[in-house]
# Entry
Amino acid sequence: MGKIIINAEKIKEVLKKGVEKIYPNPEALEKLLKSGKRIRLYCGYDPTNTSLHIGHAITLRKLAQFQKLGHEVIFLIGDFTGMIGDPSDKTAARKKLNRKEILENLKNYKKQVSKILDFSGKNPAKVLYNSKWNNKLKFGDLIELASNFTVQQMIIRDMFQERIKNNKPIYLHEFLYPLAQAYDCVAMDVDLEIGGNDQTFNMLCGRDLIKALKNKEKLVLTLKLLTDPTGKKMGKTEGNMINLDEKPDQMYGKIMSWPDELIIPGLELCTNLSLDELAEISEKIKAGKVNPRDEKAKLAKEVVSIHYDKKTAEEAEKEFNRVFKEGIQPTDIPEVKLNKRISSTSIVLVETGLAPSRSAADRLIKQGAIDVEIDGVVINKYNKKEITPKKGMIIRAGKRKFVKLI
# Structure
């Protein structure tokens, strides 16, 4: 067990950087951290996909800050709650996953997370699975736990009100999701829970439940979300999310495609830069003393360094400049096997992973953002509705996505 660090400046970084709100108040957590007591904290991650993404990395870095102060950190995998599906911000019920799908999804989570959290040494982070305690609950236990909450508490949530307004169903198991997450706090007897601000309701349910069952104060720390300039959470539907298992050059390229408005939020939420460093960069950008593109390149390089290493980040930067400054094709173009019978251009873009959906593909075609190389001849701004897939054909979507058909 490592020594508890109570350095005021380091605690300030923990309480300020990327933080939106602390319950019941920041002073309560600051007092606890300065007391020298070793606290137990966690963040939960439902394995709904095979990879965690850059949004998850925001909470992971906050956990890492607490770990470096000497506190007990738990990386909780929601292998039980993942089968229910978190309804937060969802205008329709999630597709339910079975046990086999959940286990397949979480296989590489620890490997991805180990770039940020330390699972060895004097103060190793713990990996726990919430099926360990949730699978043991009997129906009577569930009824008893549910008696601590009201239907009014659940139904008032924005996404449920939206569904009622649009005559969409709300399933009973969705009401039980906050209860299952709340019980995690009780089972692990934690002092603090960390999560994105979209998880505030679920985390406060845990605060209420542990107070009711153990008469214990659980603190809650919510973090800012990485959002686009319209305030919309970045995600796979929009095609702008970065998975933690993304190739370095793709990770670098995606960040370089972000709008300039995301530079400061990205540096705050996605890197290990200090508050003082962030303030200095922000001031220079506002005063026009630096080129925003250079700061975005710094952001991209920092992120790739965190999830890979500095050498790989430098190589990703060189590859990006080679392709986008010098106009040369990437050295490593992903190869995709495609059914030749497909003739719709939009379907080809979706099937090759160049677009997340038919509607997104149609937008790219309409914008003239598709280039196609056939037998060495490049057709710029390819906007035909039909295409004949051919071996060796190279398709480019936007500035950074390439595939080669085999």
The CA atoms of residues 294 and 300 lie 10 Å apart.
